[in-house]
Amino acid sequence: MIPQEILKKVRQLEITTRDLVNSVFCGEYHSVFKGKGMEFSEVREYQYGDDIRQIDWNVTARMRSPFVKVFSEEREQILMLVVDASGSGEFGSGEQMKGEIAVEIAALLAFSAIKNNDRVGLLIFTDRIEKFVPPKKGKAHVLRVLRELLYFKPEGRGTDLGLALEYLTRVIRRRSVVLLVSDFLDSGFEKPLKVVNSKHDVIALTIRDPCELAIPPVGLVQLEDAETGERILVDTSSREFQQEYRQLTQGRHQRVTKFLDRLDVDHVDIDTSRGYVRPLVQFFRRRARALGAGR
Q1: What pLDDT score was predicted for residue 70?
Q2: What CA–CA distance (Å, rounded) separates 161 from 48?
Q3: Nearest to 164 by CA among 183, 189, 199
Q4: Average model confidence (pLDDT) for the chain?
């Protein structure tokens, strides 16, 4: 039995995202993910004027007369939400934790997807596969996805992006839009991401809190790693500490960004202190322009 508190949060998410979906994101989503390519429909007898390149030679040999493959425009999309639920998501120096913002973004794009008559699936991961919900259509299904995101209690605390991407490759065979929501505080996921990116349309949403890039100089502070539980006492007023910390965090951020650029993976940086609506809108419009220029 799902607690009333969770059902209330699902309802609040639906209300919060409704206006954004109707006024902004549904149109932006449709213009960027409006069905690409063709899918097989049927085989029929060859007619004068048909493209001979579409002849199905196996059927032609069996029937002893020419038959061609008929294709129709592929309109329906699959949106796979791949969401990092590791312990580092329970961090936030502002009003919301990183994990809470991840859920709101997932809700926003899931509701945009069903407005476009697409199917939505969910993969929650930590250092293990926590939950997989196969893609389906409809509002009732999206509400189930949101309930899972809000109600599900992960068993793991760490992050294994590579494991999640390898699992996704096995369970989702048809080309999909893969929304990878994480803070990317991990390593060793480069090869699995290359494989997924070759099969699917991957978009990386990197969620960061400003205090992860720069800690205010407030004296002695005990820091705890949310994933390992390791604790360390540091002097945040130390110039040496500030310099080392910036080099570590900004260097990690730059390495991830460069790797995503090298793979040609679209990515959006979400700063928890600045909101997610504007960077998402800018991303959609930038991508729509790029797709238009490529036609």
Answers
A1: 75
A2: 52
A3: 189
A4: 88
Q: How far is the C-alpha of 56 from the C-alpha of 9, rounded, in Å?
A: 53
User: Which residue type is seen at 221?
Assistant: V
Contact 207, 183 (CB under 8 A): yes
> Are the CB atoms for 111 and 70 separated by under 8 Å?
no
Task: Taking residues 105-120, report their average pLDDT.
Answer: 91
Of the candidates 90, 38, 288, 56, the one whose C-alpha atom is nearest the C-alpha of residue 207 is 90
Question: To which H or E segment does residue 136 belong?
Answer: strand 129-136
Q: What is the pLDDT of residue 140?
A: 92
Q: What residues have CB less than 8 Å from 171, skipping those under 6 apart?
A: 132, 134
Q: Where are the domains of the chain?
A: 4-33+75-206+264-288, 38-73
- By percentage, how much of the chain surpasses pLDDT 90? 59
Cα pseudo-dihedral 178, 181, 186, 187, rounded to 10: 20
pLDDT exceeds cutoff 80 at 177 = yes
pLDDT tens, 210-225?
988 888 899 999 988 8
Q: How far is CA 66 from CA 49, 72, 287, in A?
A: 13, 20, 42
Q: What is the DSSP letter of 280?
A: H
Architecture of domain 4-33+75-206+264-288: 3-Layer(aba) Sandwich (3.40)
* Packing angle, helices 98-115 and 4-20, rounded to 10: 60
* Cβ–Cβ < 8 Å for 82, 158: no
H or E element at residue 239: helix 239-263
Query: pTM for the full model?
Result: 0.83
Per-residue pLDDT tens for 28-42? 777 777 555 555 667
Contacts 24+ apart (CB under 8 A), 166-173: 166/192, 166/195, 167/123, 167/125, 167/129, 167/132, 168/80, 168/82, 168/123, 168/196, 168/200, 169/195, 169/196, 169/199, 171/132, 171/134, 172/78, 172/80, 172/121, 172/135, 172/200
Instruction: At 227, list the tokens.
Output: 């994933």
